[in-house]
Design a protein that fits this description.
This protein has 236 residues and is an alpha/beta fold. The chain is built from 6 helices and 11 strands. It comes from Haloferax larsenii.
């Protein structure tokens, strides 16, 4: 039978392994699949943290639907400029609907935020443009400097089959990793849902969200090193 001391050592080793794995993801770039049958407000809190604290030097790109409030996702003190923070609001062009001419992104309130309507490929092109421009403005992005929040997976799954969405996410996650950035993708539902099981191999880690009584909690699974964090409180 293992002694209590050995058990404590094992727990400490697991924590160390998790921290080292997390740091490795930040250094080389990573993609996180965020799951959980929870209110969107809880996901917004988690995403806000993943996008980085206000005092951190980050280039942030938010890919949202037409109704999500940016204010719930970014600290008020974060600089809102095309050099540092951009928002794409995406609406699908329903299949079978042909546009007479290519859609041009339209500005909403300022040059930091624009609306894009079109097919999935056009959305990918817009994201690629922003990431490329961030890299140019930074004269080469540092590890974890680029942070991307992608909320539009449910929208894409309503319009496209899983295989097409899988390929889209493969390109997106690969592109972000190539700039040593971090992208998190919101997929409502449990980790063992069919869609999430299909998509999980694309990601370096899965972040589970849940509500335990009155507490919001999260648990991280690092697929690259096969270690989990255990449940811990999601701070406000």
């Amino acid at each position: 039978m293992a002694s209590g001391g050995n058990t404590e050592t094992t727990i400490a080793d697991k924590k160390s392994e998790f921290q080292l794995g997390l740091e490795a993801l930040k250094q080389r770039g990573s993609a996180l699949l965020v799951v959980g049958s929870v209110p969107t407000e809880l996901y917004a809190r988690a995403s806000k943290q993943m996008l980085g604290a206000p005092d951190e030097s980050r280039r942030r790109l938010l890919v949202l639907n037409s109704t999500t409030s940016v204010e719930n996702r970014l600290d008020p003190s974060i600089e809102r400029s095309t050099e540092c923070t951009r928002t794409i609001r995406y609406t699908t062009l329903a299949r079978g609907t042909a546009a007479a001419t290519p859609q041009e992104p339209s500005l909403i309130s300022d040059s930091c935020e624009r609306h894009v309507t079109g097919e999935m490929g056009q959305l990918g092109a817009e994201i690629t443009t922003d990431i490329t421009e961030f890299d140019r403005l930074a004269n080469g992005l540092d590890p974890a400097e680029l942070r991307v929040a992608f909320d539009c997976l449910p929208t894409l799954l309503e319009e496209y089959d899983k295989e097409h969405v899988f390929r889209f996410l493969h390109v997106l996650t690969t592109h972000v990793r190539s700039r040593k950035g971090m992208v998190h993708v919101w997929s409502p539902g449990e980790r063992d849902d069919v869609v999430n099981r299909t998509l999980e191999p694309l990601f370096d880690a899965v972040v589970e969200l849940t509500v335990d009584g009155t507490e919001a909690k999260q648990r991280w699974h690092l697929n690259t090193v096969d270690v989990s964090s255990g449940w811990f409180v999601l701070e406000p």
